[in-house]
């Protein structure tokens, strides 16, 4: 910054048509604008970091809530899975009974057919 002010002073010192107050105004105004720009830039960076940190915190809170909800629903889900497993087992047992009775019926029909064939001979 000092370098900018010195450069401006050197350049403006060569201007004979300006009085010293005008030169000082340019130098002071330019320096003030530079400091203001720098301060605004630092402030904007700090605000961006703060906003990013806030967004990360909010995302973490949502994630933690999601985990808590899943943990709360876990016992209900396990109960439902157990219930469905029992239903599947019952259905398989019923199907086995039907399959066995159908097999025995088929066996008796086959036996009758075989007996009829033998009696025809």
Oligomer: single chain
The number of domains is 1
Which whole number gives the mean pLDDT? Answer: 76
Strand content: under 5%
Helix content: over 70%
- Regions with pLDDT < 50 over 5+ consecutive residues? none
Describe what is shown at a glance.
The chain is an all-alpha fold. Helix content is 93%, strand content 0%.
Features:
mainly alpha, 121 residues
Notes on the protein architecture:
- The protein has one domain.
- The model has no long low-confidence stretch (mean pLDDT 76).
- Helix 1 packs across helix 2.
- The chain contains two helices and no strands.
- It is mostly helical and 121 residues long.
- 93% of the residues lie in helices and 0% in strands.
What's the SSE blueprint?
Elements: H1 2-13, H2 20-120
Helix pairs in contact: 1-2
